[in-house]
Specification:
Oligomer: single chain
Distance between the termini: 135 Å
Strand content: 15-25%
Number of strands: 24
Helix content: 40-55%
CATH class of the largest domain: Alpha Beta
Structural class: alpha/beta
Number of helices: 27
Low-confidence stretches: 1-41
Number of domains: 6
CATH architecture of the largest domain: 3-Layer(aba) Sandwich
Length: about 800
C-alpha cells in the first residue's frame, strides 16, 4: 500500500467490505465500561487483540510486525475499517495458536497504531507504533477476531523526585554506555536519546526495557508495572546485564578479529614475499621445490640409464601438473619411491674368516657343522670378491636359532639386515608390488627393504618360507622364483616401480621348519643348511651363556642373588624342556626367575639357590619322565624325524589268536606307514624260513601291529625295517634283549633304502640313552659328517639288505 493511503487498509479492495455490527459498536464507543482516556484523545474504548509470542511490545517502540494472514486477516480487516486504526498487542508467551484461549492473554497490553500494511501470500506485514498501555476490562469476543473493552491507566510519577531523577540518569547513562559497544542500536539509540530526558521517565523506562534481550516474562512484568519508579527499579538490572553481555561479546569479537587480522597479515606478507622472491629468482613454487628435491636425491647415486629416462619423464610430467590434482599426488609418490632407492650404493663386505668365527661363536653355542658351512660360504666369497647371488635355506625345528643365525651372518659380513616373515602370505603383490593404477598402491616388500636399508647389498631374511599360502590373489611362492633365482633377479621387475631392479647383490637367507610344502622349483634355487636341534650338553651351554644371563639382565636382577646349579639345569632340560629347540627351556627359566623374584621380595632373602631338591617348588612335577625303552617279544624301537626334531618310536607286534590269518594296524598311521607295514608283513611272510622262524607261523595267526601314542598322527617312509623286525621277533619268539634302535625303509625284495633326518635321529637315540643303532648303508656318509660329540660312544651298524639287520638283531 502507498504512503498516501494510510487512513484505510486497501479500502478500495472488495475484501475489506463493510463492517459488521460489532464494528459499528466499536466505532460508536457505546457500551459499558468507559475508558479512562476520553475518545477525543483518539484512544478507543474497544480494540481488537493480536497475540505476540517472542516478547511484549512497549509504548515506546516503533517496529515492523509480521502475522499469519490466514488466521488474522479478518482481525486486520476490521481494524482497517476503524477510524483510529489501532490494535492491541498482548504477550501470550509460548502458547500455540491452536491451543490459544482468551484466558492465555495477560490483563495489560499495548495499543499500537497500524501503518503501511502490506500483504504477501501467507503473511501480512505492518509497522506498529506503540501508543499507550491498556488494561482489559471486559471480553466482548472470546474467539478470533478477539474484541475487548479496555481502559488506559495513568502512570503515577513525580518527575521532580530525586530518586526518580537518579534512576532516569542511570538509565540514560546505561543506554549511552551500550551505544558504542553494540553498533546494532546505533541510529535508533541516538534518535531516542535526543527525544527523551529525565523529565519524561516513563517513555525512557519503556525504551530501555525494549532494547534489552531479556526474556518475555521478565519484560511482561515490566510492562504490567504502572508506577514508574518501581518499573525503573526492574529495568535497570536488565539494562546492566545487557551491558555486561555486550561487553563480553565485544571482547570475544576483538580477540577473534585480532587473531584473524594477524593470520591475514601473515598470509598477505607471505604471499608478497613469494612474489618478491619469484621476481628476484630466489624462490620457487611447490612443484619446482619437489622437482629440485627429487633431483638432489640422485646426486651421489649411479642410476641406470633406463631408470633415469623414466625419472626424467616423470619429472617433466610433474612440472606441468596442478599441485591440487590427484595425478600430481600419484606422480609425486611414484617419484618419491624411485629417487629414494639406493641406486649404485653398496656396503663393503668384511670377508674376514676370523671375525666371522668370533661372531658366530659369540652368538651361538653348538651348531658346529652349521658354523663351518657358513665359514665355507664366506671363504668362497673371499675369492669371488662378493657373496651376492647366493640363497641360503636354514631348515630345522622351531627354536633352534634359524633367525638369529641369519642375523649373525649379516653382522659377520658387516651388512645391513632386514627381516620379514612370509608365513601366511597369500597375495603375490606383497612380493612384486601393486599396479600403480590401484588406489593405495605400494611396492613389494623387497623394494621396501632395499629403501629402508639404503644399500643394494643387504642380507634379507625371508622367515617361515614353508608357511606361505595360496589364494585367488596369486601364488607368492611362485612369485619368489624370480626373486631367488640368480639368473633372473638381476632384472627383477616390481609392478609398482615398473623399472628393472638388480637384486643379485642381495644375500637371501630363508628359514623353514620342513621342506614338504616348498615347490621343488623354489627348493632347487637354494642351498640347504640343516639345524637339527640340540642335545642336552648343547642346551646346557646355551642356557648358561645366553638364556640365563639374558633373563637376569632383562629383569635387572644381580647374578649373585639367584644361583642355578648345573644339576638343576640338566634336570630342567631332561624333565621340562625336551624339544629340539630352546624356546621351552627359556620359558621354564623365566618361570624360575619370576618365582625367585617373589621369594626375594617377600622373604627378604639375599640369595636363592635352585637345585634338584627344590626345583619342583618352582616348576612343579616334571613334564617328561625318563623314557623307558619298551622290551619284550615283538617290540622294537625305531627312530623317527618330525618337524619338532627327532624322536624314538616303539613298534609292537602281537598274536591275537590262531583261528584265522589276519593283519591289523593301529596307531594313527598315515598312508605311507600303512604301506610300509604291508610290505613288512609280506616280506616276513615270504621269508620266515630264511630267518629261523616256523614257515607256517602266520598261516593261522591273526597279527596286530601297533605304534603307541595313537592320538599322535605318524607318517613317513622310515619305519619299514622296524616293523619287519617286530614281526620277525614275534615269529621267532625272541625278544630284543638290549637297547637297540633302527631306521630304514624296506622293499619287497629286502633291500634297505636310505632315509632322512639322520642327525635328528641320532640325537633322539642319545637322549633315550640308546647307543646302538642300525642305519641304511646309503646313509653312511650322512653319519660320518656328524660332529664327533654326536658319534662319540655310538655303535652303528649299516645295512644294505635286511639280512644285515637280522644278523645284528638276532645274531
Amino acid at each position: 500500500m502507498s504512503d498516501d493511503n494510510e487512513q484505510g487498509f486497501e479500502q478500495d479492495s472488495p475484501e475489506w467490505g463493510q463492517a459488521e455490527e460489532q464494528d459499528e459498536a466499536f466505532q460508536a464507543g457505546s457500551g459499558p465500561g468507559q475508558s479512562v482516556v476520553p475518545a477525543s484523545d483518539s484512544l478507543p474504548e474497544r480494540v481488537y487483540l493480536l497475540p505476540i509470542h517472542n516478547r511484549p511490545f512497549f509504548p515506546a517502540q516503533v517496529q515492523p510486525l509480521v502475522i499469519n494472514r490466514e488466521r488474522w486477516e479478518e482481525t486486520i480487516r476490521r481494524v482497517g475499517n476503524t477510524p483510529h486504526q489501532m490494535v492491541g498487542l498482548a504477550f501470550v508467551g509460548e502458547a500455540g495458536v491452536e491451543e490459544l484461549g482468551h484466558e492465555d492473554f495477560p490483563v495489560v497490553g499495548t495499543a499500537v497504531k497500524v501503518h503501511k500494511l502490506q500483504g504477501e501470500e501467507s503473511q501480512l506485514q505492518f509497522i506498529a507504533q506503540g501508543m499507550r498501555r491498556f488494561r482489559i476490562q471486559r471480553w466482548l469476543s472470546k474467539e478470533p477476531p478477539y474484541l475487548v473493552e479496555v481502559s488506559y491507566p495513568r502512570e503515577p510519577v513525580d518527575a521532580e523526585d530525586d530518586e526518580t531523577r537518579a534512576y532516569a540518569m542511570a538509565l540514560i547513562n546505561g543506554i549511552k554506555e551500550l551505544l558504542p559497544i553494540n553498533p546494532l542500536y546505533g541510529e535508533e539509540l541516538k534518535h531516542y536519546l535526543n527525544r527523551f530526558s529525565p523529565h519524561e521517565p516513563g517513555p525512557l523506562t519503556d525504551f530501555a526495557a525494549a532494547i534489552t534481550s531479556a526474556k518475555g516474562p521478565e519484560l511482561q512484568d515490566v510492562l504490567a508495572t504502572l508506577p514508574v519508579t518501581e518499573r525503573m527499579q526492574k529495568v535497570l538490572p536488565l539494562l546492566r546485564k545487557e551491558i555486561d553481555v555486550a561487553q563480553l561479546q565485544s571482547e570475544i569479537s576483538e580477540q577473534v578479529n585480532a587473531q584473524m587480522q594477524e593470520r591475514q597479515r601473515e598470509f598477505f606478507l607471505r604471499e608478497q614475499l613469494k612474489v618478491i622472491q619469484r621476481e628476484l629468482g630466489i624462490s620457487k613454487d611447490d612443484r619446482e621445490n619437489d622437482v629440485d628435491t627429487f633431483r638432489a636425491r640422485l646426486t651421489d647415486k649411479v642410476v641406470p640409464e633406463r631408470v633415469m629416462e623414466r625419472i626424467d619423464d616423470e619429472l617433466d610430467k610433474l612440472s606441468v601438473l596442478e599441485t591440487g590434482s590427484p595425478e600430481y599426488g600419484t606422480t609425486r609418490h611414484y617419484l618419491d619411491w624411485l629417487t629414494s632407492l639406493p641406486w649404485g650404493i653398496t656396503s663393503d663386505d668384511q670377508l674376514d674368516l676370523a671375525h666371522a668365527r668370533q661372531v658366530l661363536d659369540r652368538d651361538h653355542d653348538g651348531l658346529k657343522d652349521v658354523k663351518e658351512r657358513i665359514v665355507e660360504f664366506l671363504a668362497e666369497g673371499t675369492f669371488k670378491g662378493d657373496v651376492g647371488g647366493s640363497i641360503l635355506l636354514l631348515v630345522g625345528p622351531p627354536g633352534v636359532g634359524k633367525t638369529s643365525v641369519g642375523r649373525s651372518i649379516a653382522e659377520a659380513l658387516g651388512r645391513e639386515f632386514y627381516r620379514f616373515s612370509v608365513g601366511g602370505m597369500r597375495d603375490e603383490a606383497e612380493i612384486k608390488g601393486h599396479r600403480r593404477t590401484y588406489v593405495g598402491a605400494m611396492p613389494g616388500k623387497l623394494v621396501q627393504a632395499i629403501k629402508e636399508v639404503e644399500v643394494e647389498n643387504p642380507v634379507i631374511m625371508l622367515d617361515e618360507i614353508d608357511k606361505m599360502g595360496q589364494s585367488f590373489q596369486g601364488d607368492p611362492a611362485s612369485a619368489l622364483l624370480e626373486v631367488l633365482d640368480p639368473e633372473q633377479n638381476v632384472d627383477f621387475l616390481d609392478h609398482y616401480l615398473d623399472v628393472r631392479l638388480d637384486l643379485s647383490k642381495v644375500l637371501f637367507v630363508c628359514t623353514a621348519n620342513t621342506l614338504d610344502s616348498l615347490p621343488p622349483a623354489l627348493l632347487d634355487r637354494m642351498e640347504q643348511i640343516r639345524l637339527s636341534g640340540y642335545i642336552a650338553e648343547e642346551k646346557i651351554a646355551i642356557a648358561k651363556h645366553h638364556l640365563w644371563p639374558k633373563l637376569l639382565k632383562r629383569d635387572h636382577i644381580p647374578k649373585k642373588r639367584i644361583n642355578l646349579t648345573d644339576a638343576a639345569l640338566r634336570q630342567i632340560i631332561e624333565g621340562y624342556a625336551r624339544e629340539a629347540g630352546v624356546r621351552q627351556l627359556e620359558k621354564q627359566l623365566h618361570r624360575i626367575v619370576r618365582k625367585a623374584a617373589v621369594k626375594l621380595l617377600e622373604n627378604g632373602q639375599q640369595t636363592i639357590k635352585i637345585s634338584v631338591k627344590n626345583l619342583e617348588e618352582f616348576l612343579g612335577a616334571p613334564t617328561f619322565r625318563k623314557e623307558q625303552v619298551m622290551k619284550g617279544e615283538g617290540v622294537v624301537t625305531g627312530l623317527a624325524w618330525t618337524a619338532m626334531g627327532g624322536a624314538t618310536l616303539s613298534v609292537e607286534a602281537g598274536k591275537v589268536h590262531a583261528l584265522e590269518r589276519g593283519f591289523k594296524l593301529t596307531g594313527q598311521l598315515g598312508e605311507v606307514m600303512k604301506e610300509s607295514a604291508n610290505i613288512a608283513y609280506s616280506y616276513v611272510l615270504g621269508h620266515l624260513g630264511d630267518y629261523g622262524a616256523e614257515p607256517d607261523f602266520f598261516d593261522s595267526a591273526f597279527v596286530h601291529l601297533h605304534v603307541p601314542e595313537g592320538a599322535t598322527p605318524k607318517d613317513g617312509p622310515s619305519a619299514g625295517v622296524t616293523m619287519t623286525t617286530a614281526l620277525l621277533s614275534l615269529a621267532r619268539h625272541e625278544p630284543i634283549d638290549r637297547p637297540l634302535a633302527m631306521t630304514g625303509e624296506l622293499t619287497l625284495t629286502g633291500q634297505v633304502l636310505p632315509v632322512g633326518g639322520i642327525r635328528e635321529k641320532i640325537i633322539a637315540a642319545r637322549r633315550s640313552e640308546i647307543f646302538e643303532v642300525i642305519l641304511p648303508d646309503a646313509n653312511r656318509r650322512d653319519y660320518e659328517e656328524l660332529p664327533d660329540y654326536l658319534r662319540d660312544g655310538m655303535t652303528v651298524h649299516f645295512a644294505k639288505h635286511y639280512r644285515d639287520v637280522a644278523r645284528v638283531v638276532f645274531g
